[in-house]
Amino acid sequence: MAIRDKLRKGAVQYLEPGEQIQAVFLAKRPLMQYNDRAVVATDRRLFLLQLNFMGSPTNLAGELPRKTKLGPCSGFMYSMDVFGTNLARNAGGNEPAEADVTSRHGARTRSFMIAKDL
User: Fold this and answer.
1) CA nearest neighbour of 14 among 69, 57, 70
2) Is residue 50 part of a domain?
3) Backbone dihedral region of 75: left (phi > 0), alpha (psi from -120 to 50 degrees) or beta?
4) Residue 83 domain flag
5) Computed from CA positions of residues 49, 69, 116, 93, in that sequence, does the dihedral angle turn out positive or negative?
6) Number of neighbours of residue 105 by Cβ within 10 angstroms
7) Do the domain assignments include residue 71?
């Protein structure tokens, strides 16, 4: 199972009735050796999930309004102060890493970062 599919499946338990997942991406806190967080963007909000060492969601760690912007980001490890903590996301890999989470219509931009399922 692909990692984003696994994250989506694990995030379902934290959704409100009728809420739809639009995008997910892995993140990590400074000094962590593995991705210990996942950011989930829905049609209503952004939320942060705590992950175990196997990458499965274990806890809802934070929540923000859907209009919250993540970014601007630059560098190899995108660093963001969000959800009351510092998170970083590796810009490498094959998945898209740039999209505007504030857009309800899927608009793309280079200013704000989230891995969006296209």
Assistant:
1) 57
2) yes
3) left
4) yes
5) negative
6) 5
7) yes
Phi, psi of 5 (to 5 degrees): -65, -40
pLDDT tens-digit readout, 56-84: 999 999 999 998 887 666 666 667 777 87
C-alpha 118/C-alpha 51 separation (Å) is 24
**For the chain, how many structural domains are there in total?**
1
Residue 30 falls inside a structural domain? yes
Beta bridge partners of residue 87, listed in sequence order: 80
> pLDDT of 12-63, one tens digit each?
999 999 999 999 988 888 778 788 899 999 999 999 999 998 889 999 999 9
Residues 111, 101: contact at Cβ < 8 Å? no
**Structural domain for 78, as ranges:** 3-90
Report the percentage of the chain scoring pLDDT > 90.
36
Is the distance from CB of 64 to CB of 80 less than 8 angstroms? no
Give, for 49, the enclosing helix (H) or strand (E).
Answer: strand 45-51
Cα 114 from Cα 106, distance rounded (Å)? 11
Token pair of 107, please? 């608009």
